[in-house]
Design goal:
The chain is globular. The protein has a single domain, classed as Immunoglobulin-like (Sandwich), CATH 2.60.40. The strands form two sheets. Strands 1-7-4-3-2 form a five-stranded antiparallel beta sheet, with no helix packed on it. A four-stranded antiparallel beta sheet has the order 6-5-8-9, with no helix packed on it. By secondary structure, it is mainly beta. The longest helix has 5 residues. A hairpin with a 3-residue loop joins strand 2 and strand 3.
């Protein structure tokens, strides 16, 4: 049984979107990833497939999924600081 099921809520899942928002609240760009935060969503643009993990600042796994290249959105219900791991890259994201 998953942690989400034990806690009584569904874990967030990445959704493929057409394009990132034009005006990000927070933007972290590297060669292979673009991370933005808008309207309580983490918007991730990948240039190649990668495994993506999102953790709370306390290290609790929030979401884990292998994503193909493209633009993805993950809705986050609780405000806070999250750690986003994309392959070997690690980014801090504030919602």
């Amino acid at each position: 049984m998953s942690l989400a099921a034990l806690a009584g809520y569904a874990a967030p899942s990445w959704l493929k979107v057409a394009a990132p928002p034009s005006e990000p609240v927070e933007n972290v760009v590297s060669e292979k990833i673009d991370v933005r935060v808008a309207d309580s969503n983490i918007i991730l643009t990948l240039s190649e497939a990668a495994e993506v993990k999102v953790f709370t600042i306390l290290g609790q796994l929030v979401a884990r999924q292998k994503l193909e290249a493209g633009v993805w959105s993950l809705p986050i219900s609780a405000r806070g600081i999250y750690i986003l791991k994309v392959g070997s890259a690690t980014r801090r994201v504030t919602i």
